[in-house]
Specification:
single chain, Jelly Rolls, two-stranded antiparallel sheet, 48% strand
């Protein structure tokens, strides 16, 4: 592995959302392998206007930080719902369920997670934020 990697998160990293039937409402570009990261995960995610991610998730080991780079919306963390907007940074600790909902301008964010667990610590719960809130 070289000492550096340069990749465009949207054009050089595959969008995984179509594989899971979430496109076109969601884009999800998971870049850890593409950028050859050893100790952390990185992704670019986009949620279409007024759409909600169809699942919640948490990690038993991984802490994550989400940075909103465009648009806004809401994040549900456990039982709390928070408004989020451009340049907000949200840290979510391990064992904490979370989910996203885009506002009328959509939601674009970058997610960073550490340590690298190869997603083996992820717990995905379909419909976790299904109620109208």
């Amino acid at each position: 592995m070289s000492n550096h990697t340069i990749k465009n998160l949207r054009t050089d990293v595959e969008d995984s959302a179509p594989k899971f039937g979430m496109s076109p409402a969601i884009e999800a570009h998971f870049a850890r392998k593409d950028i050859e990261a050893e100790n952390f995960g990185l992704s670019y995610q986009q949620v279409a206007p007024n759409e909600r991610v169809p699942f919640g998730h948490k990690h038993s080991e991984q802490e994550e930080v989400y940075v909103v780079v465009a648009g806004g919306g809401r994040i549900k963390i456990e039982d709390e719902i928070h408004e989020i907007g451009q340049w907000d940074a949200v840290r979510v600790g391990k064992d904490t369920m979370r989910g996203f909902e885009a506002g009328p301008d959509g939601l674009e964010l970058i997610a960073f997670g550490t340590p690298n667990t190869e997603n083996e610590d992820a717990d995905i719960v379909p419909g976790w934020w299904a109620e109208d809130a």
